[in-house]
Each structure stands twice: as C-alpha cells, then as structure tokens.
Amino acid sequence: MPRESISRRDFLKVAGAIGLVAAVGGSLPLATSCGTKAKPGQTLKVGLMTPATGPIPEKGQAGRDGLLDCINYINTERGGVNGYQIKPIYRDSQYSPDIVPNLVNEFMDLGCLMFMTHSSTEMNYAKAIANPPGFPGLATYTSQTNYHPPQHIYGQGPDYGDDWIAFAKYYLSNIWQGTGRPKMALHLLNNPTGKGAEYGADAMADSLGIDIVTIEEHPATITSAIESLTRIKAKNPDVMFISSTPQPTSIILKDAHSLGMYPGMTVACAAASFTKALIDLAGADVAEGVYGAWPTVAWEENVSGMAKAMEYCQKYNPKDYGTAEYLATWAAALIIAEILRLATNDVDYAVLAKGDATAWQAIETHGMQKLKNYSVEGLQGAVSYVGGGDNRLNKLVRLYKVSNGNIVLVKDWVESPYIKYEDYSWFPKS
Amino acid sequence: MDLPAGIRNFSYAQDMAIFRTKTHWFWLFLLMVILFTAPLYWANYWLGVTNLIMITIISATGLNILTGYCGQLSIGHAGFMVVGAYTSAILSDRFGVPFLLALLCGGVMAGLVGMLFGISSLRVKGFYLAISTLAAQFIILWVISHWTAITGGTMGMPVSPAQIAGLTFRSQANKFYLILVVAIIVIYLAKNLVRTRTGRAFVAIRDNDLAAEVMGVNLFRYKLLAFFIGCFFAGIAGSLFASWTGFISSESFPLTKSILYVGMIIIGGLGTTVGPIFGVIFIQLLDVLVTHISPALQSAFPGLSSGFVVGIAPVLFGLAIILFLIFEPRGLAHRWSLFKASYRLWPFSY
Predict the structure, then answer these.
(1) CA quadruple A77, A80, A83, A85: dihedral positive or negative?
(2) Helix, coil or strand: residue A309
C-alpha cells in the first residue's frame, strides 16, 4: 500500500487556512462587527468643547457652530457613521482651567468615545485628566505641549511651531531681499498659543538663518500694545510674527499702524488669529498685507467638501460665513466621523457602547491610528497617523495674505517637519 | 447660640460646644455619611464639581476671615492661591518633599506673601487697600509668568497627583476624600478661630479699628495675622487645586476669580462660617447650570442670537450679586439663621 504523503502545496493550503482561522479567531472580540448592521438608537458619543464664552468667544462660537452643523449633516444626510448616529455632547469650556477638567470627567462619565478641544490651552488642561486613563482627544488648534511627548492626544493639523516654520521658509525665499540674516520680532500670547511659535523658532530659527531679536508677550485681555511695540521698534526688525488670538492681534496691528511700524515691516500671524474676525476687528485697511498661516482651504474654494459646509453655514449660522474657525471645526467633525467609521469597521459596537477604557483604546488603535490619507473632502491636508512619536495627523499648512479686505492664497500646502521637542532642554517636561 | 424650645445648657462646655443637641449630631452624622459615601454613587463629573466647590470653599473661608471678619478687603485672593499652588507643586515634584509637608509649605508661603502685601493695611483701608491687594494679584502673576526656570512661565507646569503614605490620589474619588478632609479641617479651624480672642479682635477691627486700638487691640499685629491666616487658607486651596487639575499656569488664577470670590462671600454672607460654603455652592452650581442649559437654550430657541445665550453666565452672576446686595445684604447665611430660628421656636410663633 503506497504511503500517503502530503504535498507541499497541500501543506501550504492547510497551514494558510489554519493561520487565517487563528488570526480571525484571535481578534474575534474586536472583529465580530464587520458587516453587522447598526440598530436604531445605537449611537456613538463624542465630547466636544469650544470656548464659546470667556476671552475668545470670537473663535469659540464659530468653532462650535462648525462642529455641530457638520455632525448634524453627517447624521441627517449620510445616515451617521456605518449606520450609527453620532451623538455630540457639547459644552462651552469658557476657556477656563476650572471648567475644562470637569468637562473631561463628564465626557468620560457619559461614555464618550473620544473628545475634542478647540484650543491648545483647553487641551493643556484637558490632557492632565484624559491621558492617565487613556481617554483619546483631538485638538483642532495645537501647541507642542499638547502631544509632546506623545500620549493619547492627537492634533488635527500642524501646531503653532509649524506655522512659524512655514512662514519663515516662505519669508526667506519670497520676501526677504536684504543681505545677511533677517531680524524677526515675536509678539506672543502668554500661553501655549504664543509659546508654540516660540518653540518652533527656538528649534529652527538658527538653522534657517533668522535672528530672533526680541520676544514680547501679551495677555488675551490686552488693551494696548504701544509699550511692547515701542521696544520692538527700537530693535528695528525686518519682520514681526504674531501668535495670538484675533482680538489681541487686532490691537497689536492697530498700534503698530499708529506707531508707523506697519506698513514697512512684514507682519505675519499664526493660525489662531488669522481669520475673518481679525480683519473685522482690526479693519481691512490696517490688516492689509498681513500674512498668515492656516491649515484649511479658503471659503468657496473648489473642493468636494465645500458645498455642504457653505450650505449648512448659510442655512443655520450665516454669521459664521467666512470665518476660518467654522471650516476648521467642520473639518474636525469629518475627521471624527472617519475615526469612528474606521473603529466601527473593526470593533464590535458592544465594546464601543461601554464607553470605557477598552472602548477608548479601541478608538485610538482602530480609529485614530488607522487613519491613512483621509482627504477630509479637500478642506485641509489629508490626515494620516504616521507613528514614531508624531501625533500630528496632518502636517500641511498654507500661507495666505490679506488683500483688499480678503484672505487670499499666496503659497499652497507646505509640509512641516517633525521635530522631537521633548529632546530639547528648554522644552517643558511633563 | 439659641437652642430649640425646652433645651438649656448646664455647663460652660455645653454652651461652647458647636454641636449641642442630639439633633445636631444626627444631622452632622447624616451629612458625613452622605459625603464619605458620595464616591459610591456620584459620577466622576459630580465628584469633580464637588472637588472644585470644596477647594473654593477653603479659599473663600480664608477670604472671609480676612474680609468678612477682619474687614480687610482683598481682591487679589486668587494671586495668593497661585503662590500656594506653585510652592507645593515645585516642592513635591522637583524636590521630592512629601505632599502633606508641601501642602503646609504652600499655605505658609502664601501666608507670608499675604503678610507682605498686608503691611499696607496699617496705613490704608477700604478701596485703597483693595487696590493694594489688586497689585498683589498682578505682581504675583507677573512673577509666575516670568520666572520661567522655576515656574515654567506662561506654559505652566504639570503637577503629579498627591501621594500620602504610599497612596496616590489619582482618581476623582481619591482626590475627593483628600480635599474633603482638608475642607472639614479648615472649616473647623475657621469656626473656632472666630470664637477665640484673635477672632474677637478681628471683629473689633472690622467694626471700628480706632475703637479697637483704644481698647488695646494691636492693629498691626492682628491685621497682619488676618492676612496670614486668610492667605494661608488660599495657599492650601491653591495647592489642592494644583493636585486636582494636574496642571497649573498663571491663567488658572485670573483676576476674575479673585473678584468672584468676593461675590461668593457677599452672596453667602460676610462674617459667618457657613457664608462662604453657601456662597460657593450657589455660584458654582449656577455655573454648572449655565454650562448645561446654554446648548439646550440654543437648540430650543434657534432665533436667539448665540451672543444672547453665551452671555447668560456673566449676566446671572452679576444679577445674583446685585439682587443679594439689595434684598439680602447679609447673604444666604442670614436666611439660614432665620430658618434655624423658626425651627428653634417651633411650635410657638413667638
């Protein structure tokens, strides 16, 4: 009787089948939902906060409206995410360190799968509560301290240091006409918004060939910048970079105008203040020629996601039309939806419905860290998680300029380098 | 203190006791049971809200000693909290000082800084003293923002959770117990302080400092002591705040917070131990209410401009303070004492 032997091909088939069964079986707890249909009433909760009152309502109100309008659009017109309705738990953070920690606690209590902040300062307070239990967060506006070293907080776009680097490169190759190294002054809000730009300059100014001649700080409640601008004027800088919010930036611009510093010197802003509100507050004539970095496209640009954003904004919140915050948070809501879509592809709803540490980990590993070239419907640079300590989901920033009262594009997407800030001795340790 | 109808004291000790009847002890026991079991049935959010309320009560109690009892108006109280917050955070995180010692050091440092700014109280009072304490708020915050090497400057500094005897106070429930115990101690100390010679000296200075001096009260000593004690409590509160949030910066203690503290003790009732408790609970819960109803209001009345809805909080705070000043200048504590009086007289009307 001939001995039955198994061929190499058969062996590979059997081994492959066993391996497949083992792989699928091993991940069963998380993977049983593939193809399952959402049942009525099943929702995915997300915690959202913006500073709708407090010192920067001009940003927080439009930010809130963009977020909630986009989630409304996703739920009503797209049927939610994989059939699950997104349930937004929105709170006004008031930009307050007293309020923010409790809101993060509330989001966790209510079983939110992730949360979102609208400002880097909010996230600085939120991360202290969110990181220890592993509650994942997305920050629309970011400073390096939000996610360096990386834990469970991710940035929707580049941080304020990236804004500075993008503008500095643009300035050197397109504006600077002199010889030697240009002299730059920094006028910074006295919180992560301002410091973020300073960290970018600390890390890159020398290698780029820019001399930072002076750094002035101001509070969010500034009423006059004459004194600080007088000191800056004495240093005779070629360019001034402002990283602040719209209201203080408008005061700095008006005072620079009255002191005769501007026009004459190049002025640029980081993303937090470069918006329609700045032009409204400072006046189109004063803001004329100011450069700014911004992580989204401009209103009415021909990208696939613009039509719905415009439609909802004009229908529900026409006062926000033209504000950069509305578009930025509309894009943030799309990213949140994509994170939830990826997670619900891989993870059983029963796991997510618990809204506990297991669900948070699932959202982070199966949602945030699975993001790969999601286009955000063209509203901003594509988002991907690249790992290696870089928690910025998007590294692209655009440069704009105020021209005849409008914000016009001067430089298309600039990719910002990854800088491991935590390795620098001057970077705050956490 | 009056007693319920039909009850009288038989000794001085009985007369001096804070809790004098079985009913008092019953209510105290019930309150303690509710508070110490709260983490079993309160969500983290409400524990967080309660933690903030208790921290604020500690600070407001200090302000009440300074302003309510001694009559020294301070609108820089949040500035003194900063001193305590940073002192304890730096000592425990950078130098490994045990938390309880760091907490006390934070209080002492805040008290000493308070005394420094309180020196001016011997020469000025009222609005002039208020401006002096306002200067304290700005100077302290300026130092914190610019002493980058020590404080982290405007970026603030992360703070590790409190550790006592190997137990780390990481969760809201753990922090709740820590803050609750400290709050109880502070309220007990404040209650007893005002019944001592020192407390009576404070009240004498508040009522008429010239008369107090004529009676032999050393104004300089007692005013500075009031600043020390008031700011000591602020420092303790700041230290607990730092441990509670896990992150502090100069933005955590703005001028508006100092002004709100004054509003809290006005609404609660100046010069009473329970006043700060009532005032803080009232204002903080109002804040929570506004935070929660704003989105609902916006949804319910889409015709309202968002500016109207988001402006509710400051309007309500201002309105509450104005209404209390007009209709109940002695604050919620007075309402509480009226309620107790009616209870004592029951069932007799007179």
Answers:
(1) negative
(2) helix
Round to whole Å and give the CA distance between A291 and A263: 12
Task: Count the Cβ atoms, other than its own, within 10 Å of residue A307.
Answer: 12
Measured from the Cβ of residue B288, the count of other Cβ atoms closer than 10 Å reads 18
- The least confident of A263-277, A334-348, B85-99, B142-156 is B142-156
Confidence of residue B302 (pLDDT cuts 50, 70, 90): low
> How many cross-chain Cβ pairs, A to B, lie less than 8 Å apart?
100
Q: Kindly report whether the peptide bond that precedes residue B161 is cis, defined as omega within 30 degrees of 0.
A: no
Give the CATH fold of the B47-345 domain.
Answer: ABC transporter involved in vitamin B12 uptake, BtuC (1.10.3470)
- Specify the pLDDT at position B127: 83
For residues A121 and A138, is the Cβ–Cβ distance under 8 A? no
Confidence of residue B325 (pLDDT cuts 50, 70, 90): confident
Q: Would you state the structure tokens that stand for residue A19, as one six-digit string?
A: 């391996």
Q: Tokens 């609208």 correspond to what residue?
A: A118
Residue B168's beta-bridge partner residues?
B163
The contacts of residue A177 (CB under 8 Å, 6+ apart) are: none
The reply to whether residue B155 touches residue A52, judged by beta carbons under 8 angstroms, is no
Domains along chain A with CATH numbers: 43-158+299-394 (3.40.50.2300), 161-294+417-423 (3.40.50.2300)
* CB-side neighbour CA atoms (13 Å) of B202: 28
Tens digits of residue pLDDT in B100-110: 999 999 999 99
Candidates B155, B176, B244: best to mutate against A (most CBs of A within 10 A) is B155
A97, A105, A317 ranked by CB distance to B172: nearest: A105
A97 to B244: CB separation less than 8 angstroms, yes or no: no
CA atoms in the 13 A half-sphere facing the CB of A117:
31
ipTM score: 0.76
Cβ contact (<8 Å) for B306 and A65?
Answer: yes
Q: What is the 3-state secondary structure (H, E, C) of B271-283?
A: CCCHHHHHHHHHH
pLDDT at B177 over 70: yes
Which residues of chain A make contact with B245, given a CB cutoff of 8 A?
97, 101, 125, 128-129
DSSP state of A237: -
| pLDDT confidence of residue B34 | 93
Instruction: Please state, in angstroms and rounded to a whole number, the distance separating the CA atoms of residues A151 and A391.
Output: 8
